[in-house]
Amino acid sequence: MQKDPVARLPEYLEKISFELDRCIDFWFKHSHDEINGGFFTCLGKDGSIYDHTKYGWLQGRQVWTYARLYNSVKRFQRQDILEAAIKGAEFLSQHIKNKETQKCAFAVTKSGDPIKYQRTIFTECFYVLGMSELFKASNSDHFKQEAIEMMSTIVHWLKDDDSYLGNLALKSDKSISSLANPMMLMCLIDQMRSTIPEIATKYEKLEDECCLEILGHIQRNHSVVLENVSYDFKELSGCQGRLMNPGHTIEAGWFLLRYAELKNDNTLKNTALEIFLEATFFQGWDNENGGLFYFLDVDGFSPTQLEWNMKLWWPHCEAMIAFLLAFKETLDKKFLEKFDQVFDYTMKHFCDPEYGELFGYLSQEGKISMNFKGGPFKGCFHVPRSLMMCERMLNQIMDQGKNNN
Amino acid sequence: MQKDPVARLPEYLEKISFELDRCIDFWFKHSHDEINGGFFTCLGKDGSIYDHTKYGWLQGRQVWTYARLYNSVKRFQRQDILEAAIKGAEFLSQHIKNKETQKCAFAVTKSGDPIKYQRTIFTECFYVLGMSELFKASNSDHFKQEAIEMMSTIVHWLKDDDSYLGNLALKSDKSISSLANPMMLMCLIDQMRSTIPEIATKYEKLEDECCLEILGHIQRNHSVVLENVSYDFKELSGCQGRLMNPGHTIEAGWFLLRYAELKNDNTLKNTALEIFLEATFFQGWDNENGGLFYFLDVDGFSPTQLEWNMKLWWPHCEAMIAFLLAFKETLDKKFLEKFDQVFDYTMKHFCDPEYGELFGYLSQEGKISMNFKGGPFKGCFHVPRSLMMCERMLNQIMDQGKNNN
Question: With an 8 Å Cβ cutoff, is A7 touching chain B?
Answer without folding.
Answer: no
